[in-house]
Amino acid sequence: MKYLGIQTQIYRNNLKSIFLLLMFPVIILLFVWLFLALLNYMGTGYYDEAGNVVHELDAATVNYYFLSTIPWVVGGVGVWFLIAYFWNVRMIQRSTGARFLSRKENPRLYNIVENLCMSCGMDTPKINIVDDAQLNAFASGINRQSYTVTVTRGLLDTLTDEELEGVIGHELTHIRHRDTRLLVTSIVFVGIISTVMSLAVRMLYNVSYYGGGNRRVGGSGDGRGNGLTVIAILIAALVCSALAYFFSMLTRFAISRKREYMADAGSAELTGNPRALASALRKIAANPGLDGVKQEEVAQLFIMRPDEMDQGLLTLLNSLFSTHPDPQKRIEILEQF
């Protein structure tokens, strides 16, 4: 594997972050236009001379309403993104159950983190712990004030000093490469889309459940309009859901599996002991923790994907688009250093 310098990696990740920032508003506005277009198409039907229902898209009307909603959509999403972006630490802590770890609680970990930071000339990040008997770790944050390294209790209790140093070196490399900023950007974007999807589905359910009784078969135009509205919302929700899922796949492509290989290589260079990280990965693979975190986006932060997340109907797709390479391949590469 060709090794890239840290500045090159930082430059590439910054470009990816900018790409995501530019692409996200486009995707959101596309959702809005499609939703308005589908509502217009399905809700403006009329009967021709033969008695058949004919639907036509009034593009001028759709564009009028679309242009009038752009400031509200951009403003709302922008405020939402800024709040989520700058509160990402608390959001991730709440999702993982992490808490601050003081030096008094574990001076061993602090010594390892500080020694590695001094050797590469970086500021010491905050240190958090998850009281989980299984093994995992991750880095998070968007700037010097929020950069954090989080480990599980099981990781501290199981790994030797050399193995723990390898894991910490891996996480510090993510921070140095600014992988965490790219990941947080992805998490916030996909989280916004997921929330909008959930609201759309709930609205569809309410309209179908509470509005269904008002529909009359063969009744007046109002009854048919109500039925067409439900159908239009259903189609719009399905289309937007499919596009939102596709967007989440794109973000996982943008955050490629090479990110983990690069962090492994950075740890090997930082510690000078690649076999220690290989040994740590072997132990983590046998018992990866943080199973309680079910969001795939948050799991992208972890040094190894929780094994419990392999269950579900989307297992195949998640594995195809996963940002985590096979642990055995990572171990083999480290052992070749």
What does this protein look like?
The chain is mostly helical and 337 residues long. It is built from 13 helices and 6 strands. The strands form 2 sheets. It has a 4-stranded mixed beta sheet with strand order 3-4-6-5, with helices on both faces. Strands 1-2 form a two-stranded antiparallel sheet. Strand 1 and strand 2 (53-54) form a beta hairpin. Helix 6 (161-176) packs across helix 10. It starts with 5 loop residues before the first helix and ends with a helix. The model is unreliable at 212-221 and 311-316 (pLDDT under 50).
What is the spatial order of strands in the main beta sheet?
3-4-6-5
Q: How many strand units?
A: 6
* Helix percentage: 55-70%
Range of strand content: 5-15%
Compressed to H and E, one letter per element, the order equals HEEHHEHEEEHHHHHHHHH
Q: What low-confidence regions span 5 or more consecutive residues with pLDDT below 50?
A: 212-221, 311-316
User: Radius of gyration, Cα only, in angstroms?
Assistant: 25 Å
Write the layout of secondary structure elements.
Elements: H1 6-43, E1 46-47, E2 53-54, H2 59-86, H3 88-96, E3 99-100, H4 107-120, E4 126-130, E5 137-140, E6 148-152, H5 153-158, H6 161-176, H7 179-211, H8 221-254, H9 258-271, H10 274-286, H11 296-299, H12 315-320, H13 327-335
Parallel strand pairs: 4-6
Antiparallel strand pairs: 1-2, 3-4, 5-6
Helix pairs in contact: 1-2, 1-7, 1-8, 2-7, 4-6, 6-9, 6-10, 7-8, 10-13
Would you kindly provide a brief summary of this structure?
The protein has 337 residues and is mainly alpha-helical.
